[in-house]
Amino acid sequence: MANLQTTFAGIKSPNPFWLASAPPTDKAYNVIRAFEAGWGGVVWKTLGEAGPPVVNVNGPRYGALLTPDRRLLGFNNIELITDRDLELNLTEITQVKRDWPDRAMVVSLMVPCEEASWKAILPRVEDTGADGIELNFGCPHGMSERGMGAAVGQVPEYIEMVTAWCKQYSKLPVIVKLTPNITDIRQPARAAKRGGADAVSLINTINSIMGIDPATLTMSPATGGQGSHGGYCGPAVKPIALNMVLEIARDPLTAGLPISGIGGIGNWRDALDFIALGAGTVQVCTAAMVYGFKIVQEMSDGLSNYMDQMGFASLDDIRGKAVPSVTDWRYLNLNHICKATIKQDTCIQCGRCHIACEDTSHQAISSSKDGKRHFEVIESQCVGCNLCVTVCPVPDCLTLRDLKPGEVDQRTGKTVSAEHADWTTHPNNPTRLASATAA
Q: Among residues 113, 139, 353, 397, which one is catalytic?
């Protein structure tokens, strides 16, 4: 069996699957159930400083973007940090960590951007026996109006300053949770590293409004007739999260900084994408809220089976391996040629490929042959754009085929050369250029 054990920023856990700081990690009852189900770690829901309790709305806190068959695509929330007493949270964290010493226990924190506030809460968290702290610099609603959350995460100087305070007043590993509501995710990550962060986690939720009620023309969901923008998460944000994780993983100024990937992870394949792009652990929230804690069993079994099939002994064999395959657009092989191919024995003659290509693309799929309904690729028009593959409802019926050296592109009349067919050997390949320069 493949080894899923993980050490992240010095924090050990039996697998890389952690629950993110959110409602599922708000109390001991939930966290114990999660550990019993097999989660490798949790990030306890964000704690604030002692004082007047946080008050959440007693009305709709969540909204969703659903498919016609009511599968969840995106999830929106306006819930704030924990509204439970700080002392109660700390007591529960202490007991859970004592009872589950092999699981990762990270505590999320958000207090005012004042040195005294951080200095006061850090030793109290450290006394619980927690393995690390996560600085919530990402919450986009409610708390940001009070100068916390994303209000800090959008200012690199604040990130660096608060991170440095936490490194000064605590011995625990410091994970900085980044907001995606920013133009260039590398800037806050660099600031976190300058401040001494042991790792970063991302992405937090994206500013969003789910829609309006057509009967009243008011925002929906709403509380008492009014609503507020919230944080968007779920499967729909995964591509955004992957891009931001990748940008940090390949940035020379954040090289080596451990990354905990968050955003739309619902199964082992999602987790694999994050790990292959540089993540050391993955954090899950929405999928657990929709399907329950036992989804971690599919995640662990699926990833383990994949690794066994591929001959990977540990997660180190996967982590970051896809990063070199991502480059800037200017370095792409513009001489590479591929064509769409239809497997006639599995084609159901629905015509979706033809309609999409005929109306919006390159008119490269014919719709009839010998007077009968029949769909076939016209190679002299096909540019290999992948639209037909995307809209085809039959798995693997439509695929792209790379032209081999010596083949002629019927669209341009050019013959494919060996160099252009295998970009890894081409003298203009940026990776090859970098290797030659280093040598």
A: 139
